[in-house]
Amino acid sequence: MSTTAPPLTAAEVDDLADRFESRTAEHVLAWAAERFGERAVLTCSWQKQSSVLVHMVSQVAPGMRVVELDTGILFPETYETREKLIERYPVQFERVLPELTLDEQAAKHGERLWERDPDACCGIRKVAPLRQVLDGSDAWITGIRREQSTTRQSSRKIELDDRRGVVKVQPLADWTSRDVWRYIWRHGIPYNLLHDHGYPSIGCIPCTTPVDGSAPDERAGRWQGTGKVECGLHGN
Ligand code: SF4
């Protein structure tokens, strides 16, 4: 894990979060590109927020790194979304893989680790690769929205991630799901078609299930029945 000091102090980040609360997502993203340059990185999971942010990066921050943490066990529709987006938008795209392939993970930790110890599986396939990406970065741009779940309700547009020594920038923090769809439709942006089939939130195949309209929040179909709500990338 990075031990680098964050590039801004907690007081500076608080002040920026207050000032940016009423600013548009484009303004926040453009500020991050200007302030952090090549040390800012957007991570994408190819859900609807990624569609918005890749489009927006191409408009207001075209040189920004766009990184996929590819667990190797994502839905075909998710990989198709990636292909459509990077074909359409000339962004600086990188794909980061876990240290272990799925076969190597099975040999070392046993088959279907996600069923027995999802935290360990996410640690190998998501958290460690993210650490590798952020070790060379000062700012991490994410598609987190407050509306997604109770664990994300207090997210701000600018936060300090003390654990990783980076500033987290969340331009869509105050966007509703309706805002996201309105933006996608207005600009004709490719999106993950699983969203049309009962998947408001999409992760790895074994840990994502469709939900009906009465689900308590958008992320109700992730790790359903396990009590796990986050993969370890977000939250302290
Ligand atoms: S979401 Fe599931 S399969 Fe994907 S890394 Fe986490 S535990 Fe493993």
Number of domains: 1
CATH class equals Alpha Beta
- Annotated CATH topology: Rossmann fold
Overall 3D geometry? globular
Q: What's the multimeric state?
A: single chain
Q: What is the count of DSSP helices, taking H or I runs of 4+ residues?
A: 8
Regions with little confidence, pLDDT below 50 for 5+ residues:
none
Give the SSE string: HHEHEHEHHHEEEH
Features:
single chain; 236 residues; alpha/beta; six-stranded mixed β-sheet; 8 helices; globular; binds iron/sulfur cluster
Plain-language structure description:
This protein is of the alpha/beta class and 236 residues long. The protein has a single domain, classed as 3-Layer(aba) Sandwich (Rossmann fold), CATH 3.40.50.620. It is 38% helix and 11% strand. It contains 8 helices and 6 strands, in the order ααβαβαβαααβββα. The protein has helices spanning 10-20, 25-36, 48-60, 76-88, 102-109, 113-116, 118-134, 177-187, and strands at residues 40-44, 65-69, 92-96, 139-141, 158-161, 166-169. A 6-stranded mixed sheet has the order 3-2-1-4-6-5, with helices on both faces. α3 (48-60) links the parallel β1 and β2. The protein is globular and about 45 Å long.
